[in-house]
Design goal:
Oligomer: single chain
Helix content: 55-70%
Structural class: mainly alpha
CATH superfamily: YgfB uncharacterised protein family PF03695
Radius of gyration: 17 Å
Order of helices and strands: HHHHHHH
Length: about 190
């Protein structure tokens, strides 16, 4: 997997911080919950995400200052990067030095986290857009992939392809749920003036 997305975060370091805090979720899952909430329309200035994540992955226990700082930085990076239209959704994942099975597990964790964050933010709101529905279905299917991977070039290529598919699907969701709505609001305001 290409680790260029992770320029500001070392997956292993984030995993270590979370493990030291006895957190019940992986780095991939936590970052994906953030991306899911942002893709469902949560404002990047809304700090409620932190309490939601603490309740979901830490059973409401308080996080240490180190964990809070890391999570705040991770959220800011995710919010900034997902809003850049010239790159795909940011994903905090292990690089290809990790065994393929660990990379695949992180991908499934990421998809589960994204779907959780998206669902928490959307709530009971109906999703009528067929592209969003299809993308969410793809993510759900990926999140349920059987964890079995051989260590070879073909597996690495498949992981890269799968990662790119996830990035495209989640960017499409963000575009449809957030960017198009923002554009419509700007267009309506421009038309009214």
């Amino acid at each position: 997997m290409d680790s260029a997305d992770n320029q500001e975060f070392d997956y292993e370091e984030v995993e270590s911080i979370l493990a030291d805090a006895d957190c019940d979720a992986s780095a991939a899952q936590i970052q994906a919950i953030m991306c899911g909430m942002l893709s469902a329309g949560m404002s990047a200035t809304n700090q409620q995400w932190f309490f939601t994540i603490a309740d979901m992955v830490n059973e409401g226990r308080h996080f240490s200052a180190e964990v809070k700082t890391m999570m705040q930085s991770l959220f800011e990076w995710s919010a900034l990067t997902i809003n850049q239209h010239d790159i795909l959704t940011p994903m905090l994942l292990p690089d290809d030095s990790y065994p393929a099975i660990d990379q695949l597990e992180a991908l499934t964790d990421w998809c589960q986290g994204f779907l959780l964050g998206f669902g928490l933010q959307v709530g009971e709101q109906s999703i009528d857009n067929e592209e969003i529905k299809e993308s969410l279905t793809d993510l759900a299917e990926i999140s349920n992939i059987e964890l079995d991977a051989d260590e070879n070039d073909e597996t690495q290529e498949a992981l890269v392809t799968l990662t790119e598919h996830i990035k495209v699907a989640t960017q499409l969701i963000y575009w449809e749920m957030v960017v198009k709505k923002q554009t419509q609001i700007v267009d309506q305001n421009t038309t009214l003036h």
